[in-house]
């Protein structure tokens, strides 16, 4: 592990960092590493009590800066694309703007991100798995753009932020006995989401940083409610502290250039030779 390294966390929208990588970000910052947060869009088409558009985008970026400060980030970068939104069936929205991230030229977008990676001399960049986690089109684009950017910049470590699908399904079925999920929640979507346990190479314990992770989630107040009531983020924030640390105390990543079955505990761990 390098004494001081730089990790760039690439996300699609504000609040994605809170859900998937906040604990790792806080841990690395506490260990003295430089942590940089990059978002492709301002999330201006997300579901919230504010009407979609510029005002929501400004609000969500303000929330992102607060989250980044709580996690110890040294820098926040917005690539400047428009939020692609979601279609009625969860796919690509028909009414998306002309500069939607999903429609961006992959090479051009990768060059934008690669410029940040080069400027930072990044040792590591996180993206999403090929399915984009739960399948949002902008998350799928993060995978494509991020992987190509790492090639251009020569960033040596590429980690796909994900969730252990096997554990997730068991936890959600158990939680369903005690909690009423929000209207937009559909357990069936998670049967194809994220990555199976056998594919995961990094299981990072972040229980010591659960307070920062929870504060990062809370910073994104616009995403806690919207529509008919609490959304998934709002529901997560209601989980009692000890149970929260148990549920959110691990963050998962896939590194494709190491042997299948590798089990590492830190983003900068050196994998065994194939």
From TrEMBL:
Pfam families: PIG-L. GO terms for biological process: glycoside metabolic process. Keywords: Zinc. The keyword Zinc applies. GO terms for molecular function: hydrolase activity, acting on carbon-nitrogen (but not peptide) bonds, in linear amides. This is PIG-L family deacetylase.
